[in-house]
Amino acid sequence: MKIIKVFIFLLSLVAVKSPWAEITIMPLGDSITEGWETISVPPENMNGYRKELFNHLTTSGYDIDFVGSLENGSFVDTHHEGHGGWTDGQIADNVYTFLNGNPADIVLLHIGTNQLSTSPSDVEDILNEIDRWETDSGKTVLVILAKIINREGHVCPAPSTTTTFNSNVEAMALSRSDDRLVLVDMECSAGLNYLSDMAELLHPNSTGYAKMADSWFTDGLLYILPMADAGGDQNVDEKTLVTLNGSGSGDPDGSSLDYWWEQQSGTHVDLYNPTDSNPTFTAPEVGSGGERLIFKLTVTDADGFQHSDTVFIDIGNAFMTPPMADAGADQNVKEEDTVTLNGSQSYDPDGTIASVQWEQVSGKNQVTLTDPTELTTGFTAPSVDSEGDVLTFKLTIKDNDDLVSSDTVAITVRILGGPIADAGPDQTVTEGSIVTLNGINSYDLDGTISAVQWEQVSGKNIVSLTSPNELITDFTAPAVDSQGDELSFKLTVKDDDDAVSDDIVNLTIRPATVSATSSNGGGSGGGGCFIQTVIN
Fold first, then answer.
1. Which CATH number belongs to the domain containing residue 139 in this structure?
2. Are 378 and 433 in the same domain?
3. Angle at CA of residue 475, ends 473 and 477, nearest 5°
């Protein structure tokens, strides 16, 4: 882009627009402005560069209106003065009438393709007619003048008739001392590929037109239009002083800007100095959920051109309390169990829970949650090895103030299986001794032992167990005859799934043994002495 002349008129001569005024733009030229591609494209689809340019401007915050006596295209603002087959001389003969019918702030002029010559005189006549209309109407028009696109197959910067015409147009524009012109190089600086971006000899395809739109916007309009910057979004507390910052706004030609701030939504506040770049207000009191206020800044330059930008101010309650996440109690489950994760005890003390997210954060096995965005969700316990697995899940909740809380729960998964009773090894004991029955090596494959029962199942002698419902119990071996006795005890264990296992232990009770010796007494008739020794 090359700025040829940008003359700043005295402010008293410029018709400054009121707030919210549209910028009127007249696309002016021939069938390229009209949007012609090929004969197969109907008028309702002939958008040319105009549709993409309209999108650039409106999405960037400019309030614009395309003007002209003609309409075609498939977007919301299709007016233009693109006359198919017209020469630059014909445009010169009619541009005064066009402006009378549809006054414009800016004219986008792309002309010269038809009956191409190297002379810029007819283009100069167009500019002279625009000057005449300005004098008669008392209005100012800024012209963005294009060095026109070349023909299909051209390779920049190879010489051509179009290239010579464009050079002569540039020289003519430079010689004009009282015009406000911006020159845009469509021929070689807009990025057109004259093989892939052309629909036929003279007209671009949709890709080529999009590149023209980019050039009109970036290399032309952004060099003359102001840019509003309402500053970054803010998060503030209620009752605090808030400063809006529009100091980043600017105008490309360096002219001063008029500022106008207005509130778009939210509890009404009084802006102090709304025509200043940095007005202030006091944040209102808000409820527990806070509130968002939206402000719009419109800047107007010396030409009356305007641009707007918005800013969000989120007002928070200084006493907002975060929510409390509760992922529930840790659990012990078996593989293939249906497991429920219950966060229903989570709550928000000063509002509501706005969103919920469960996620697995550890474990050898990954599982799929049925509905991870609900407070209560679930999964099927995975198959595990003999060591089992511990799966950890995190519950994160966010309240209506965007405050967040998290909690975790551990789910221990055990392998499937029942209890194993172990009554201990068989024993041989002596009558009268204390006998211990030891089932301590009993265990449960997938849980815990919940109940124990010892009982005597055989033997001539019946004994009493001290603790028949404990894994370890005892009794006193009964007195037996010389033959002894065989006692059998059954240990039965039950796990937390009500599964049962039992085991038998046998005890042999032997009697205490006696040995005897005798000796003759002294003398012939003397009695003898008997000694008994008990051997255990």
1. 3.40.50.1110
2. no
3. 145
pLDDT at residue 288 in the model: 67
Q: Give the span between the Cα atoms of 103 and 138, in whole angstroms.
A: 11
CATH number of 370's domain: 2.60.40.10
Residue 531 inside a domain? The answer is no
Taking the C-alpha atoms of residue 218 and residue 390, their distance in angstroms, rounded to an integer, is 59
Q: What is the pLDDT of residue 286?
A: 86
Do 115 and 182 lie in one domain? The reply is yes
pLDDT of residue 318: 64
Query: Within this chain, do residues 209 and 60 fall inside the same structural domain, yes or no?
Result: yes
Q: Could you tell me the sign of the dihedral formed by the alpha carbons of 367, 370, 376, 379, in that order?
A: negative
Residue 255 belongs to domain spanning: 234-316
How far apart (Å, rounded) are the C-alpha atoms in residues 435 and 450?
25
Domain identity same for 52 and 81: yes
Q: Could you tell me if 73 and 188 lie in one domain?
A: yes
Q: How far apart are CA 82 and CA 84, in angstroms?
A: 6
Look at residues 107, 133, 112, 119 and name the one whose alpha carbon lies nearest to residue 172.
Answer: 119
What's the Cα-to-Cα distance from 483 to each of 270, 429, 480, 513, 524, rounded to whole Å? 111, 13, 7, 11, 41
Domain match, 344 and 424 both? no
Given 388, 414, 440, which residue is the final one in a domain?
414
Is residue 274 situated within a structural domain?
yes
Say if 326 falls within a structural domain.
Answer: no
Residues 6+ apart with CB under 8 A from 192: 149, 150, 186, 198, 204, 208, 211, 212
Domain limit, last residue, from 165, 193, 223: 223
The pLDDT of residue 414: 82
| Token reading at 413 | 């998964």
Per-10-residue mean pLDDT of the chain, 536 residues long, equals: 37 40 94 94 93 96 96 95 97 98 97 95 97 96 97 95 97 90 96 96 96 97 95 93 97 92 96 97 85 95 93 82 93 91 93 94 95 96 87 95 92 84 95 96 84 96 96 96 95 89 96 56 40 36
Measured CA to CA in angstroms, residue 515 lies from 118, 429, 520, 527, 532 at distances of: 147, 20, 18, 21, 7
DSSP codes of every residue in 265-296 = ESS--PPBSTTSSS-EEEPPP--TT-EEEEEE
Omega cis (within 30) before 157: yes
Instruction: Work out whether strand 306-316 and strand 291-300 pair parallel, antiparallel, or are unpaired.
Output: antiparallel
Distance of alpha carbon 57 from alpha carbon 62, whole angstroms = 5
311 shares its domain with 376: no
Task: Give a three-class secondary structure readout of 199-253.
Answer: CCCCCECHHHHHHHHHHHHHHHHHHCCCECCCCCCEEEECCCEEECCCCCCECCC
- Site of tokens 């001063």: 256
| Whether 205 and 60 share a structural domain | yes
